[in-house]
Amino acid sequence: MKIILLGAPGVGKGTQAELICDHFNIPHISTGKLFRLNVAEGSDLGLQVNEYIKKGKLVPDYLTISLVEDRLNKDDCKNGFLLDGFPRDENQAKELELFLNKKGEHIDKVLLIEVSEKVILDRIAGRRVCPKCGESYNVKYNPSKVGDKCQVCGSELIQRSDDKEEVVLERLAIYNKVTKPIIDYYNALGVLYRIQGEDDINDIFKSILAILETD
Ligand SMILES: [Zn+2]
To answer: Which residues are catalytic, by number?
Structure first.
């Protein structure tokens, strides 16, 4: 089973990725992890990636694609894999399909987890963290029992700058812009499945399983 998982920040992609990979016993391949691993191992590609990361620059397409292809050639991907965070744009999606087609393979299913902007904002902009002990809360879903203080250590809770509403909205706008063409691309290939991501984690996983276990 070769799967791609798509979804905006805050839709709960990471949790579902783990559940899917455990269930089907396939590797969870995220470009973030792949970058870190290759940099840590000091591989040829890793050294090149590190040059961009050090400068705070975006890793160019050709490098990202080489890293992913290199990873997909490994033995543990023979029975399938789940890609998360890749492809990031339409060009990467086309390159990936080309690479798989050369091996007589293709992506089986693309899962798009969808959550309304309002819920994403509640989830992310509602986060509060304790700067001292690291405990995290959500003003709506998991508030501290002692108001705006940490119920573990009593410190004043803060909102991370990345979690501020205007930052989240900006990230969502960028996500929507680059992901729309990917969605259209896979939709045209007939492999796109939309999943309503506002339910309970287990219910979402059940709908995903229903999709993945149907031919
Ligand atoms: Zn604390």
So the answer is: 13, 88, 127, 160, 171
